[in-house]
Fold each of these.
Amino acid sequence: MSVDTATVAKIASLARIKVSEAEIEAMVPELNGILAWVEQLGEVDTSNVEPMTAVIPNTLRLREDVIDADPLTGGNKRDAVLANAPAAEHGFFGVPKVIE
Amino acid sequence: MPDTSNSLTELGVAQIRDGVANGDFSAVEVAEAFNANVAAAQEALNAFIIATPEKAIEAAQATDAKRARGEALGKMGGVPIGMKDLFATFDVQTTAASHMLEGFKPQYESTVSQKLWDAGAGMLGKLNLDQFAMGSSNETSYFGNVISPWKRNDGGNAALAPGGSSGGSSSALAARLCPAATGTDTGGSIRQPAAFTGTTGIKPTYGRCSRWGVVAFASSLDQAGPMARSVQDCAIMLEAMAGFDAKDSTSLDLPVPNWEAALSGDMKGKKVGIPKEYRVEGLDDDVAKSWDDGIAWLKDAGAEIVEISLPHTKYALPTYYIIAPAEASSNLARYDGVRYGLRDLPDGANLQDMYAATRAAGFGPEVKRRILIGTYVLSAGFYDAYYTQAQKVRALIAQDFAKAFEQCDVILAPTAPSAAFGLGENVDDPLKMYLNDVFAVPASLAGLPAMSVPAGLNREGLPLGLQVIGKAFDEQGVLNAGLALEQRAQFAAKPEKWW
């Protein structure tokens, strides 16, 4: 499988990365080079193999259903959460108008 | 009083810890000596994104005060370290070497860095790296290339790569800007830079060190580990970094062994596997010779050498370059110009335009390349052919190791296929750059502990590393084999100071 300029433009749009026509032109052969190389995986017989989901066997834990179980990740952190926001307004994250 | 400032920076973690505890020198003297080296090398090596000399002094003063009160100083008491700028540090800029996070000051501390401070370490600064840890040469940092302190012995003056992504860590260690540094390893990012610079580093079993507060690249692979100038120093620092953390869902709920106390270079009764698939055609002569040296050293230490097979080795790299970008494309979706980091809001732009403009401006070319590859392999219609197939091959690679470990205790291989290359030599060809990690990636895909120790110099006078890969949870076996190599390699070379 290989990509063309339209496909790269589509992927970039899905990934929310603005790219110029010239950038797309440059990316097509680069991405095709990488994709052609990874396609060798197709020659491996995996018909009886389950895809790996956890590299080291582990069980997912549930935390206790209590507020502020860990104060580091608990509540009442509004100012800390907003401290690095590019546009914090009135205790919220500011974004451009979404509804016309 | 004799001037010890120069000799202090030659000391490693254990020597500093013990010297401070014994009162041979103070922690503040140590911090001042390293602070001076950091400042003097910054322009030439660019190993740090920011230096934090005041943090190093503050921690050292606390250690000296503890000692005056007769209190225990901690596993890393009095040891100043470099912190890879992938670890969130409270109110200290944390960038992942990206424009996206330039100026970002976390309001929390990563678990691993907090553990190190709790153990008595101090911070010399935030170390440069490949942007979002994506690279093998430290040439993708938004804050400029890191330069290796090493030079070829050909009389030329070519600037060499310190490896990547933990290139600031490796360069700083080799240049004696710090006695130890944190690294992170997703597909070789601790081991390959260690090999390139004649330093030592271990990636522990996946889940040993908490990922909480580490800027995410590929979460099923990302693992933090120590980098230092000896196996013992790595063991000490890993003890301080490791441990269960409820805030990381894949953290291992296991006690942290006392690795340092159990160190032994005696390999009697141990079997060392030599994977035949790693003897690739066209393997560099010097790398092949260093591998043979390593085999002889481990035999000398009492080990039995056995040939093993890891049949899916050749598929490890392409598997990695599906899985890592797929996870990266998902992880890096968080950079949206809303909650933290860069925002690029062109005139009249709507929310979608802002996302796209922000991400275009905030990510470098390699990061974009990987996000696009990841987005493609996860997209409808291609998911099974690429991503699911890669996860299946990953399972086969892990099975290869499981079978091999029925025949041996540890595996010995080269760390990288070559010594350090020159800056700019591989940047135009992503595939050629990716091949640097051909020996490092399989252990990452299988989540296994693996370390690199210096083996010697090649004909150009550049360091080569040997890699030890162990069974899951058997960091001790890896460290012990590493120690056996270290004791016999007697690696004492260091770069001649030019910076």
Note: Chain B has 16 helices and eleven strands.
Amino acid sequence: MNNLSSYLWQILELILAVAAAPLLTGWVNQCRAWLQNKTAPSVFLPHRTLHKLFHKDSVVAENASPLFRMEPYIVFGCMALACGIIPTLSTDLPLSPAADAIALVGLFALGRMFISLAAVDIGTGFGTMGGRREMFIGFIAEPALLMVLFSSSLISKSTLLTSIVANLTSQDLIIHPSMAFAAVAFVMVLLAENARIPVDNPATHLELTMIHEALLLEYSGRSLALMEWAASIKLLAYFCIGIALFLPWGISSVNTPFALLLSLLILTVKLVVVGALLAVLEIVSAKFRIFRVPEFLATAFLIAVIGMLVHFLLGA
Amino acid sequence: MPNFALQLLNLLAAIMLLITFAMLSQRRPLSLNRLFTLHGVVLVLSSLLVAYVTGNSHLYYSAGLTLAIKVVLIPWIIHKVIIRLKAESDVDTLINVPTTMLIGIVLVIIAFNLAMPIAQLSTSITSGILGIALACILLSFMMILIRSKAMPQVIGFLTMENGLFFAATAATSGMPMIVELGVALSVVGGTLILGVFMFHIREQYDDLDIDHLENRKED
């Protein structure tokens, strides 16, 4: 019975995360607009956009293969599943032993592979270019993300995200210098993976510089809504990984309604603060040339490697 | 030393290493100067921490001196010089950042191995902090070697001094006051002289590229 209730909680958390994800995107956009002295759109704008898109007809190119039609569902599924593995509210997740941190990176990679394949599938110039660039960024961002996760799993000696977080929250306040490196590397990967400003501009439709938008160019209606939603969930998932690894205080270890409500409150506060910080980071930085991006991500990878080294050397 | 303070010191050491790596990959002089200021701030914090923990009151003075000279005075001088020389857009193109970072990682490993036997003789600190201080020194030394422009080389030199200072504070709870005063004054003097040098290099060659000086060598 206890087991069943924890499954129920898990599903509830998952639904909450998926439903609330566009709010985070809306909040970041709102902060950005404020910082640019613009009149900010409502936080609910992404939700309204999704609502609008779901009611529109979908147009599919004539030469689209079944892969193109399937792809939004696969990507959405990947991102939703990722949200189920990441400990957002509590560390008592019955689904989490199914996949550890490495599988999580694999899930993101699966999503990326299908996005790129579908973009190439239609055969338009922009789609192909976007697909190639997405893989180009992904192949360096992935090892960097893995290294970040390894640094934190070295501390708790487990690659399961839930046990990493449980370990980090349960012990007394111990400062891990390696986490400082991992955090910097993680922020760099987050910017690259979620198409934020130094790497890609989410607000632009300038054809030659866009990556994320180029991938979605051929989608419309319901499929486009799912893809946009998946992008929002991905941003939330990355934020939640970051919060779970670097600011884990307040994530409850038991599934009682009161504890979950409290950790939901704490998580909301953290997301609001971190989202505003992301907006500030985007405002103060300028977009890179595309060929500077590998340098940026290689730096992220090497910083994560130094973090691991520091863990071994300072710990010894 | 209490466990928590030691961890805090470890964290500061790690942040210092991180900033040194950031300086390695930074191309623009003004941003480099900002990172250097941050480096100084971390140094001040670590001095204050060691002073608080060991109760050495002269370390407070030395932290104050570091704050005045390395966080306020020298970055201000460098900023002025950069503006006066119009060197804001002097971008170093020689270096390949990932390769530099890879060499940097190797240097860190060497520094840690070098510091291990020395730190075993000491009772006050862990081997890690001395290793990080040594790594900072080696990394800034590398920065002097690989940069072709005068400004990053000067900043690399000053960073090296910061690393030495950190090693001294962490390993022996600070040098005698008179030595620190002497070092601090000579660093300010050195910065001023290097500033004058840069003006002269600029006047001679219309550029801050050190390679021009190579041609002056007698064969």
Note: Chain A has a mean pLDDT of 87.
